[in-house]
Amino acid sequence: MKKIFKESELEFFERASFDRNPLHRDDSYARKTQFGEKVVYGIYAALFGLGEWLSGRNIRLSTIKGEFKKPLLTDVAYDLNFIENESRTDITLSRSGTIFLKMRIGPSQFEDRPFRLPDSQPFVPRLSAAEGLQYGETGILEIPSSRYSTGWHDNLNAPAEFRLRRGQLPFEQMTAFLWSSYFAGMEVPGRQALYSSFEFHFDSAETMTDDFQISPLRVEMDCRFNRLTIQGTATGIRFLTLSSFERPVSVQTRIQEVQRCIGTGTSMSGKKVLITGASRGFGAVMAQAFALQGARVGLNFFQSRKEAEELAANISAIGPAPVLLQGDASNSRDWETAKREFG
């Protein structure tokens, strides 16, 4: 089946999980990231796929692991597929043969009746995501025990296209998914998080508690890739592993700063230079550097028109006016359009 994620689904998941990370909810912030727009919550996409596969059935999971291989975006059509055999089920979201989300569900037990829905417990979530965590020389961080409660209760209605209902999973399993998104996006790594993967090994017996407790967690940072691995246990979970990338902070470099470093010149006069991803970050720096040396620059951008127009205005003040080229750098048709417009 085809799936297009909508803004209303992100709004629902923010309220259900308390994950307010700006990568998912702040247009201005997201435009300045390497993605150029808001990213779909990975766990929402995972739960959406799970709901479609269950098709109204109730299930007690034994193990599940998932990997977010590429960020999912709103208003883009993806293919949702299931592959089932006796020992496992694989769920994927893909586009044009490229896999964005991959999940594997181990042997599980289907139930005739929905699972019990305990009363919601008091919980005070963070209002903004954590920043600037310090991991020390060892790259290891110990997180003390904590508790969590979701915002998904009777008066929060899920979008019509979201088929998974609260009672289809045990309380502790549904809570684990929502907590993992909140923890990555709001706690560790927090503001600069890009959720990468999860793996849960659940208890086989029902947990007769209304409180979701997380044991002390061990966080290990691999500085080579800015990737964190979190391990521990929680209510109803024998063992869990989460991983997230800590994205670098977006840097906006003014043309005056570039000029101070390289000066101005004519070494590129009469030449054309096309810069992909030119509206922000290193692409913007490269565009300004070539313009300062006299080149006529083509500014390729995908979604961030406002930022591209601001950059074009700055470059026009010191050199040849650049050409704005909107398009997906991975799409051959957009390349042909750029060729016609830029030469």
SSE layout:
Layout: E1 2-4, H1 7-17, H2 22-25, H3 27-31, H4 42-54, E2 58-60, E3 63-68, E4 77-84, E5 89-95, E6 98-105, E7 109-111, E8 140-143, E9 146-148, H5 171-187, E10 193-202, E11 212-214, E12 217-222, E13 227-234, E14 237-246, H6 255-262, E15 272-275, H7 281-292, E16 296-301, H8 305-316, E17 323-326, H9 332-342
Parallel strand pairs: 15-16, 16-17
Antiparallel strand pairs: 1-4, 2-7, 3-6, 3-10, 4-5, 5-6, 8-12, 9-11, 10-14, 12-13, 13-14
Name the descriptors:
28% strand; ten-stranded antiparallel sheet; 343 residues; single chain; alpha+beta; 27% helix; three-stranded parallel sheet; elongated
Your description of this structure?
It is a single chain. By secondary structure, this protein is of the alpha+beta class. Helix content is 27%, strand content 28%. The protein has nine helices and 17 strands. Strands 1-4-5-6-3-10-14-13-12-8 form a ten-stranded antiparallel beta sheet, with helices on one face. The longest helix is centred in the middle third of the chain and has 17 residues. The radius of gyration is 23 Å and the shape is elongated.
